[in-house]
Amino acid sequence: MTAGRVTVNGQVITELGFKVDPEVDEVRIDGRLMRLEDKNAYLMLNKPDGYLTTMDDPQGRPTVAELVPVADHPGLFPVGRLDFDTTGLLLFMTDGELAHQLLHPKHKVGKRYKAVVDGVLAQVDADRLRAGVVLHDGPTAPALIEIGEVQAKSLNARERMRVVEGSLEGEQTLVSCTITEGRKRQVKRMFNHVGHPVLQLQRQAFGPLELGDLPIGEWRYLTEAEVEALRMASGN
Question: Which of 56, 83, 85, 127 is catalytic?
Fold first, then answer.
């Protein structure tokens, strides 16, 4: 503070312990407005395809940090992760305690995904996922699986020719999948295990929060009611 980097209502402050009223005073550090009324920041992003869920990448690849207001909220971080090619609801916050509670398996906070899987998913395979399957890192908890529409794949010209020749399965199944764990690539590995690789994956809900109509690549702050709902879901 004694370096003159802090201003309150336009006045440079050098006195240690200077009192401010966060409801009234405008506080800036190096010219950047500090939102002192917000002890923690909470927001959701509709993550696009092609972004790493990390705040920094040494290789210079696109990261989700480019899509959210990190300059306004130092310490902002993603709650869990979504794969590079997975889209949908990704929470961010500066509240480490709440994030830890949301991700802890004992609280069983559900994450719902819309998956497009290869082929026609049979009830017998859905039942295997509902009961839990054994992956290389151990058995999964039971998943909530709802089988949706079976449709023709969106194929390129070469693939369509192979379908006509009978050498390539031309159908795919829409599936709703809710899990309470957060292992790396878990949903994809579960469907691979039952012989139906995931073609597209979007997270639609995290606990009580829904992605809704938030445009792809856009973010918004959570409401106080949404933050409270997350706390309740995490057992706080």
Answer: 83
Q: What is the pTM of this model?
A: 0.79
pLDDT digits (tens, 9 = 90+) for 153-185: 865 555 454 444 444 458 999 999 999 998 999
Count of beta carbons in the 10 Å neighbourhood of residue 87: 22
Q: Can you read off the two tokens belonging to residue 209?
A: 């929060």
Contact by Cβ (8 Å): 77, 93? yes
Question: How many other β-carbons are positioned within 10 Å of the β-carbon of residue 139?
Answer: 10
Backbone CA torsion sign across 57, 64, 39, 8: positive
Q: Rounded to whole angstroms, how far apart are CA atoms 6 and 56? A: 28
Domains along the sequence of the chain with CATH: 1-37 (no CATH), 39-108+208-236 (3.30.70.580), 110-206 (3.30.70.1560)
Q: In terms of DSSP bridges, do strands 42-47 and 219-221 run parallel, antiparallel, or are they unpaired? A: antiparallel
Residue 92, pLDDT above cutoff 80: yes
Annotated active-site residue 57? The verdict is no
